[in-house]
Amino acid sequence: MQTTLGPLLHFWSKNEVFDFYEQVAESGFDRICLGEVTCGKRRELKLADWLELARRLQNSGKNVILSTMTLLESQSDYFQLKKVCGNEEFLVEANDMAAVQELSSRGLDFVTGPSVNIYNAYALKHLQKLGLKRWVMPVELSAEKLKAVLAQAESLGISESLETEVFSYGYMPLAYSARCFTARVNKLNKDACEFTCLKTPNGIPLATQEGEKLFTINGIQTMSGQCMNLLDQWWMMEDMGVSSMRFSAHSKEVFTALDKVLAQLELEQPGETMPVNDQCNGYWFGRNGLEMEQI
Asked: How many structural domains compose the chain?
């Protein structure tokens, strides 16, 4: 089982991002996804900066992937997507169908992120013809649904040449909007947001009237209010034929804890675990996403 560190979903300063990936370079993660995927106004890092980080991580022995934006809102967003897809050095993760079209038109292999809605093996077969090599299951699907998709893929004869990845830890990216909720909370216009996301590097928690954590607001992105935690499903996924687990870190402290836990799992030595407060796994068990099923 391989491990993938997904792209940073929150907005951090350039120095914080570079410091973070220095730590990542020394970690046990196999694969690292880099790039701005949430908002085109977050321009602390240019493509040249992401490529510099990619080369550093590659020199540290990491398999590096460049991730594209999830919601394109302007012509400049599209131009940026074309630059990422045409980088000529690193495999690209497509997070929307515009990126799939761009990559396939160039004759390039690609992977898809969890925001590309793939719900059956017929979609996988079509995308594979376009160049798909690995897909990340949408976060809302269950283990039973994944089993059905993988069985269908086997019947279509595509399972041997296609890898499957499951989002296994972190705040789940649920939806994207043309509106910026973080700007609105701070009484700012989206076009003059003053990059206010920098003031809330872990997002803004949103609770129900009963005080239950429901969502995390991250600019134009709505995330789960609790962290998906499927770490204890490691061996079940492996038995199902899942090739890699994806993790999303929303702070350096969470990343450090994840790295320690994964090292123990790989050695089959259960030890430290992630904190259990404010975590969920409901989708995986076919239940409400915010629920936590006890194994």
From this structure: 1
Residue with tokens 């600019």, as numbered in its chain:
219
- The rounded distance, in Å, linking the Cα atoms of 102 and 78 is 10
pTM exceeds cut of 0.85: yes
Distance CA(137)–CA(124), nearest Å, equals: 11
Domain containing 258 — which CATH number?
3.20.20.70
Whole-angstrom distance, CA of residue 27 vs CA of residue 48: 23
Beta bridge partners of 107: none
Angle at 195 between CA 189 and CA 201, to 5 degrees: 125
pLDDT tens sequence across 47-66: 999 999 999 999 999 999 99
Tokens 């259990």 correspond to 276
Give residue 285's identity as a one-letter amino acid code: F
In angstroms, the CA 73 to CA 179 distance is 10
Domain with 97 in it: 2-171+228-277
- Contact between 274 and 244 under an 8 Å Cβ cutoff? The reply is no
Tokens for 233?
A: 């499903």
